[in-house]
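Example 9 (inverse folding). The structure is encoded as follows.
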């Protein structure tokens, strides 16, 4: 079974669609540039402050504000597995481009974990740009009984339900991957979700849980020997953790980077979308933002507007199938 978080767009299709969209949007772009933005832009980050996505998006917003002539103000709105913030934008924000949100895979997945889906990940948003992803992995405290991943799995197999692990929420990509791992190995772990990766790491360091399986907020604690990484979920080993095996090396056909982007509410003017896309693309490619991504080992997963919208639509179908196969539910 393969869990994939990257979808490679067809290069010819992307070029054709991009050129066509640009030609059609030119008059709208001129009008949008003349009036947009006329006040600060709010960027809703659906995680607590201090995590890797929060830091990366703050950097992106700071750089973009220099071109836009208006500040990009980050508002942290965590909750509901990272979907509370995006839903507030979809349901409450005006589609004028002044309120945006991080778009991540949990927003595409969680509707299908409910008896009655609460939103349409494709139709309820205007998807603008794909940006980057996360380095995921599992880590324990340095004084943990587990020196290796294999020791952790052996303990879990002998002690069903006793071992606890934390993620940044129910139905997140890392939670889904851990469910797949348990299914493959025939083990039972107890999931203890938190609102964000920084809270999850704090819980693991404090001994409230045995292990954190989340984005790279744990990495500095591994570097200063407060934690020990048991696995990383990239295709290849991470340069700064050369002794830590990948899930593929451990026998799982799983690679997880969970690409994310920026979206707004449905109905946004395509000229405004183009302005936002171009400014955020340029900010993403700066050495300043690249340095932030390097700090957290975040891969570049840039997708233009048309490609990103195609990725969202295709990924929704994939998430529906995965939720049904693993029988994941938020309804109890």
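The amino acid assigned to each position is listed next.
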């Amino acid at each position: 079974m393969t869990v994939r978080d990257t979808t490679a767009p067809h290069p010819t299709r992307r070029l054709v669609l991009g050129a066509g969209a640009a030609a059609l949007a030119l008059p709208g772009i001129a009008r949008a540039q003349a009036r947009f933005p006329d006040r600060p832009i709010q960027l809703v980050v659906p995680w607590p402050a201090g995590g890797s996505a929060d830091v990366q998006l703050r950097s992106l917003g700071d750089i973009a504000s220099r071109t836009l002539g208006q500040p990009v103000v980050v508002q942290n709105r965590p909750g509901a597995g990272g979907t509370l913030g995006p839903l507030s934008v979809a349901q409450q924000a005006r589609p004028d481009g002044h309120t945006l949100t991080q778009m991540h895979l949990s927003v595409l997945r969680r509707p299908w974990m409910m008896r009655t889906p609460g939103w349409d990940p494709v139709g309820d948003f205007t998807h603008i740009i794909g940006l980057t992803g996360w380095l995921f992995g599992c880590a324990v405290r340095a004084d943990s009984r587990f020196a290796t991943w294999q020791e952790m799995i052996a303990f879990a197999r002998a002690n069903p339900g006793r071992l606890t692990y934390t993620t940044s929420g129910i139905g997140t990509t890392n939670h889904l991957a851990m469910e797949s791992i348990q299914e493959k190995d025939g083990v039972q772990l107890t999931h203890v979700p938190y609102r964000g990766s920084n809270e999850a790491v704090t819980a693991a360091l404090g001994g409230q849980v045995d292990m954190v399986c989340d984005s790279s907020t744990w990495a500095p604690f591994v570097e200063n020997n407060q934690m020990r990484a048991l696995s990383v979920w990239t295709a290849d080993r991470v340069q700064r953790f050369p002794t830590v095996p990948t899930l593929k090396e451990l026998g799982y056909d799983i690679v997880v980077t969970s690409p994310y982007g920026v979206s707004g509410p449905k109905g946004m003017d395509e000229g405004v979308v183009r302005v936002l896309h171009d400014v955020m693309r340029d900010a993403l490619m700066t050495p300043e933002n690249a340095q932030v991504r390097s700090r957290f080992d975040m891969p570049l997963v840039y997708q233009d507007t048309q490609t990103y919208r195609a990725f969202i639509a295709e990924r929704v179908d994939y998430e529906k199938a995965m939720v049904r196969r693993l029988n994941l539910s938020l309804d109890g």
